[in-house]
């Protein structure tokens, strides 16, 4: 499949040619652990064992690389499995990592509580400010980690500017593209070295599969990551890969609807007397709105806001919502609501990444926006 095709076409066709044996237009689920070899060491099409390679996973990995404009795509059992493999490939004991001051709680936990025990050091920077990133870099810095938009405060990082800072120091730039998805943002084209996804979220899009992905701009780094993917073993299973491919086919149309609905939700929140602050990169008053407009196709389906009355008031908003389902995760077709301080970001409590106690996070789905607005109005009281 030529990479000259449009995104929407690649999402449906890249890595998903009709099955040569039957003509099936959807890649089969190769639910198999091992493969018959054509003599000792004679691998048929390179397959020997499904941890090392599986045709359904290979289809997904080819698709992911095409959508991000990368040289190599790799699919994992979860987003954190992808992150762990990446960190242990890029970093050795004694190396240093820069992380954002508003990173996802699971990423922070992995770095601060697991990878750091391996002798890797880390420091926090405001990645919305390239000067802050430059100040955090040390002679031992091997990677700069960025989320844009970030989770849950919807911070924006100028990918091209921070890529220049990282590369000047000889470090790799890693961009978590989960909130934007491949459709809304192309970090590799802006200078990133590796893109990370929790494919559980917008890429899969239906809240029915857990997965993760890495996509690299450099083929050699992709090969090194593939070696570690096999050695560490947290690969995406065949059925999970198939479900993710199924979700990706409708990514473009879903993201258009998520973004349109989120813009309407934001309009309601900005004007509501019980809302004290709204976090959404589509707002002109967002401090990096112009950067977001430059590097994103539209502004996505994630919205966070603070509530008058403090933490208990925020929790009550979450409890009163009905159409917005109280639950963790994000990016599915259904709308979700959560309290980050007590749920997804409890692991950063007491750290430099602690989130406001009165914060509510929304994953705006693709339902009727009028129904969503009515539900939020009831929840806010």
Which segments are poorly predicted (pLDDT under 50) over 5 or more consecutive residues?
A: none
Average pLDDT over all residues = 96
- Could you tell me the number of beta strands? 12
CATH top level class name of the largest domain: Alpha Beta
- The CATH superfamily of the largest domain is known as Type I PLP-dependent aspartate aminotransferase-like (Major domain)
Biggest sheet record: 7 strands, mixed
Strand content: 5-15%
Tell me the span between the first and last alpha carbons: 52 Å
Q: Considering DSSP H and I runs of 4 or more, what fraction of the residues is helical?
A: 25-40%
| H-E order | HHEHEHEHEHEHEEHHHEHEHEEEH
Q: What spatial order of strands do you see in the largest sheet?
A: 1-7-6-5-4-2-3
Supply the helix-strand structural class.
Answer: alpha/beta
- Number of helix segments? 13
CATH topology group of the largest domain: Aspartate Aminotransferase, domain 2
Instruction: Compute the CA-based radius of gyration.
Output: 21 Å
Shape: globular
**Domain unit count:** 2
Proper CATH architecture of the largest domain: 3-Layer(aba) Sandwich
């Amino acid at each position: 499949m030529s990479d000259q095709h449009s995104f929407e076409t690649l999402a449906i066709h890249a890595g998903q040619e009709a099955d040569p044996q039957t003509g099936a237009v959807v890649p089969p689920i190769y639910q198999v652990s091992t493969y018959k070899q054509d003599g000792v060491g004679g691998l048929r099409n390179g397959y020997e064992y499904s941890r090392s390679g599986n045709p359904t996973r290979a289809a997904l990995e080819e698709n992911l690389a095409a959508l991000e404009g990368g040289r190599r795509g790799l699919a994992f059992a979860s987003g954190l499995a992808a992150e762990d493999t990446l960190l242990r490939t890029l970093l050795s004991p004694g190396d240093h990592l820069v992380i954002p001051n508003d990173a996802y709680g699971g990423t922070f936990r992995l770095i601060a509580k697991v990878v750091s025990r391996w002798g890797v050091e880390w420091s926090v920077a405001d990645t919305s400010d390239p000067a802050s990133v430059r100040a955090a870099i040390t002679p031992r810095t091997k990677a700069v980690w960025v989320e844009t938009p970030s989770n849950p405060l919807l911070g924006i990082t100028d990918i091209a500017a921070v890529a220049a800072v990282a590369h000047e120091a000889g470090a790799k730039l890693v961009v978590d593209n989960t909130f934007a998805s491949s459709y809304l943002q192309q970090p590799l084209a802006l200078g990133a070295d590796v893109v990370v996804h929790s494919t559980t979220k917008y890429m899969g899009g239906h809240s029915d599969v857990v997965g993760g992905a890495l996509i690299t701009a450099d083929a050699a780094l992709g090969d090194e990551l593939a070696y570690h993917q096999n050695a560490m073993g947290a690969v995406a299973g065949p059925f999970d890969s198939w479900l993710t491919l199924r979700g990706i086919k409708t990514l473009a149309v879903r993201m258009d609807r998520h973004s349109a609905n989120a813009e309407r939700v934001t309009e309601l929140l900005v004007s509501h007397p019980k809302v004290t602050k709204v976090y959404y990169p589509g707002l002109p008053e967002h401090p990096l709105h112009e950067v977001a407009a430059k590097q994103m196709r539209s502004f996505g389906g994630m919205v966070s806001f603070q509530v008058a009355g403090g933490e208990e008031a925020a929790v009550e908003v979450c409890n009163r919502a009905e159409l917005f389902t109280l639950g963790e995760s994000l990016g599915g077709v259904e709308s979700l609501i959560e309290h980050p301080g007590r749920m997804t970001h409890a692991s950063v409590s007491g750290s430099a990444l602690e989130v406001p106690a009165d914060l509510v996070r929304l994953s705006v789905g693709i339902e009727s926006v009028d129904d969503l607005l009515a539900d939020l109005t009831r929840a806010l009281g």
